[in-house]
Amino acid sequence: MKRVVITGQGTINALGADVAQTIDAMANAQCGIGALEFPNADRLSIKIGGQIKNFDASERFSRQQLNFYDPFTQFALIAAEQAISQSGLVFDGELAEFSGVILGTAGGGLQTQDENYRSVYEDGKNRVHPFVVPRLMNNSAVSHVSMTHGLKGPCFTVSTACASSNHAMGQAFQMVQSGAAKAMITGGSESMLCFGGIKAWEGLRVMSNTGCRPFCASRDGMVQGEGAAVFVFEEYEHARARGAEILAEVAGFAMSSDASDIVMPSVGGARRAIQGALNSAGLNPTDIGYINAHGTGTAANDKTECAAIKDALGDHAYDVMVSSTKSMHGHLIGGTGAVEMLACIAAIKDGVIAPTINLAEADPECDLDFVANEARQKSVDVAISNAFAFGGLNAVIALRKI
Amino acid sequence: MSVQDKIVEIIAEQAVLEPSDVSLSMGIEELGLDSMGLVETVFAIEENFDVSVPFNANDPSASDFDVSSVQSIITAVEGLIAAKSA
């Protein structure tokens, strides 16, 4: 089995237009959540989200490119460009054929669908743009990253709701670990902040209109975000031989299914995924220094997740730092695990522990160290990132300092 | 059909009961409605009476809309209908 390391990272999200801005915002406990701005937002009852503001796609992409790039593809391309540039890899020859792209997304080109449904149903038009299908398809982001950077190996999209990115990165990890690929571009992207996207979520009555307050007794639901984060997973000896800067080692990964309820989480399923990731990495519970929680800010998730962490880690659960960065960037649904991986890398690489902001009131059912409201500086050797999706699909990744 | 009868019918359907088996004093748990059953009930009430129900599944008891019993739901919906026509 090969060892797998991360040699590049990139992002665009509500906290920043790159990794440095994002980590700086987390370290300063900044909140990227604000008023939603898009057509018909006045007809929504949920009016807040972690929206990327001050972003003009036409400054970044040509008109011809934008005909093919839904926002979820734009975000993925921007993040992938940063990650690949940092890694220093150039994909040609044999390396190109043994490198690929696996990205997570839940909604894919949802904004393209939303705009075009509006056009044919509401505006009564009988014709849509010829590239609506290649723009909305869920593999659009993966394919454009592949085409832009000449990646000719395994390329596909993973869609498991809120766990999409973690499942995608888990696949990329196993692909490099098994020797099937030398390097994989992986992470996730989401752009659900449009009228139809939010309207659908409103129906579930689990969204907050007051803010994202994970683990706080006053929490009243989740707040959506948008954006992407993309990483370069590379075989360790390959990275070492070329003298690449290694950000962290991907030490382990596991997935599980609750097989119980389509929306309610389960302690057992979450616990099995956490324990599985540790087993896969050959780690003990006491090795863990930081957990980036799924921490959605819903009543159900947060108490279930705390119980699962305690079941998996025993007494060490009270010694480990646990934070939900969704309090700052919102819930990016299929892209969320990727943006949260940035916080895990910052913990491993720089000892920057991102906080859980908006935590004002203790909940007896959530009694761990949530790094409340202020970031911490503390050296961490092992971090794990939790993702627990609707549908009961869980995916946990473990990172280790190298 | 009265507001009361319609709400009893909606709740009975969600709880998989006959309307005659639903009494006004019954609570949500007694009816066997889980949080998603409650969300569907609220949706059906909104669609039937053309009202907007303030309800958050994260903490049903904290909402302005009292869902503690069948009677409290009827009272709350009558209030929303009255507010709409006022």
TrEMBL record, chain A:
PANTHER family: 3-OXOACYL-[ACYL-CARRIER-PROTEIN] SYNTHASE, POLYKETIDE SYNTHASE-RELATED. The keyword Membrane applies. This is Nodulation protein E. CDD domains: KAS_I_II. It comes from the Bacteria. Its main location: membrane. Residues 1-401 form the Ketosynthase family 3 (KS3) domain. Proposed to synthesize NOD factor fatty acyl chain. Involved in the synthesis of a highly unsaturated fatty acid moiety, which forms part of a lipo-oligosaccharide that is responsible for host specificity. Belongs to the thiolase-like superfamily. Beta-ketoacyl-ACP synthases family. SMART domains: PKS_KS (SM00825). Keywords: Cell inner membrane, Cell membrane, Membrane, Nodulation, Transferase, Transmembrane, Transmembrane helix. One of its GO terms (molecular function) is 3-oxoacyl-[acyl-carrier-protein] synthase activity. GO terms for cellular component: plasma membrane. Signal peptide: none annotated. GO terms for biological process: fatty acid biosynthetic process. It is found in: Cell inner membrane.
Automatic annotation (TrEMBL), chain B:
It holds the Pfam family PP-binding. Gene3D superfamilies: ACP-like. Residues 1-81 form the Carrier domain. Keywords: Phosphopantetheine, Phosphoprotein. InterPro entries: ACP-like_sf, PP-bd_ACP, Ppantetheine_attach_site. It comes from the Bacteria. The keyword Translocase does not apply. This is Phosphopantetheine-binding protein. It comes from Paramylibacter kogurei.
